[in-house]
Amino acid sequence: MKNFFPALLVLTVAIVGLVASMLSSGSSEDRPAPPVAAAEPVDASDLEVVESPDTSTAAAEPATACNALGLPRPTVNDKSDLHKPVVVAAIKAKVPDSVVAKLHTEAPAASNEDTGRRKGMVWIPGGVAVMGNDAGPPDEMPPHPIAIDGFWMDATEVTNRQFKDFVDDTGYVTLPERKPELRSIQKGAGLDDIAILEEFDQPGSICSLQLNSRDDIDPEKGAYSWWQYTLGANWKHPEGPDSNIDDRMDHPVVHVSWLDAKAYCDWAGKTLPTEAQWEYAIRGGRDGEFYPWGNNRNPDGKWLHNIWQGTFPIEDTAEDGFARTSPVGSFPPNDYGLFDMSGNVWEWCADYYQPEYFEVSPFHNPPGPDSSFDPQEPGIIKRVQRGGSFMCSDQYCIGYRVSARMKGEEDTGAFHTGFRCVVVLQEVAPP
């Protein structure tokens, strides 16, 4: 497994999709060739914030705050035709009846071994749904039908306690705990200073730097102003060597790369969900809606997920009760019994990332593309992340929407990135 180089020190870094992991490049020989047709990167400066139909936050306020911060503005558009049941029905009708008839909807009887493996999981009944959005960023388009066979999914994100069981049993060492390979040094990038190399040639991971005011934001650096490579940060020390998880064993594990998450899944006899399984699951049968519970972000004035409140990235007022990760299950589940699918931490999916995959994905159990391509960083292998995190704000990141897509370099973790697992039926091809 490869390791990563401090993202703040390389030119090939990506602040991917609305405040997620900051990433570095890997060796070129293991990069799959990009597809012939590639989407152009979105110019975030041209985007506007329009809140969802019934939200309790004024639409103009987030855009004003973003302009004051000098940050690119996120997009949520309330003109979605998917709010019209007739549109949803027309899209779902595109799935052939022959496919629908063969879907696995009922959970089969489980053996004793399977019962143990599926502890803490819920059955997601197969069915037909609409994936994507018709009024968001281009990589969420077009809305399209999917037919998903039933599967089991972790009711919560994998916790520190569960991950510790894996590490204790196997002796596994995550990538942030290993010495970086320093494989992204580039001539002329100002990174050939020996002192700098020696300082950052140590294990660590990506954390967010606390800013005191908007004056701390360098317009030329943008999001680099608040992201930092923290020496000694890893899953056992989320904010660095002086922090620990002693009182956070029921919080989601963080600072895990895609490769670390896959290693856990292999040990547990599970897999990471495909992106299609993940979006099917978060929707819980609610096609065409913005959030797992509907179109109102704060019904009855209540926070139903762990995200950022306040002026981003200066102060999180923690109106939802949490300034960082929250214990899993702190908020109500969706209609399938899944907790924290929106907010808390970004979750790895099995799929490679490609922005135009929705245009060509098959109806039945879409497996994801067979290679990675991010037009903003075509030489870096990216995997899909979904669900948003406690760092997501309506002023900068709206990743907590059910259709919001993210991508991260597969060998990079961060203090707001975790995962959950699935188990598929034996007679259904695994992701």
List key phrases describing it.
about 425 residues, alpha+beta, paralog of FGE (formylglycine-generating enzyme), four-stranded mixed beta sheet, three-stranded antiparallel beta sheet, globular, disordered N terminus, disordered C terminus
In short:
This protein has 431 residues and is an alpha+beta fold. It has helices spanning 60-69, 85-92, 97-101, 112-117, 160-170, 194-200, 258-268, 275-283; strands at 121-124, 127-131, 144-148, 151-154, 204-208, 227-231, 346-352, 382-386, 405-409, 417-418, 422-424.
How would you characterize this protein structure?
- This protein is of the alpha+beta class.
- It has one domain (45-173, 248-424): paralog of FGE (formylglycine-generating enzyme) (Alpha-Beta Complex).
- It is built from eight helices and eleven strands.
- The strands form four sheets. Strands 9-8-7-10 form a four-stranded mixed beta sheet. Strands 1-4-11 form a three-stranded antiparallel beta sheet, with no helix packed on it.
- It is globular.
- The two termini are 21 Å apart.
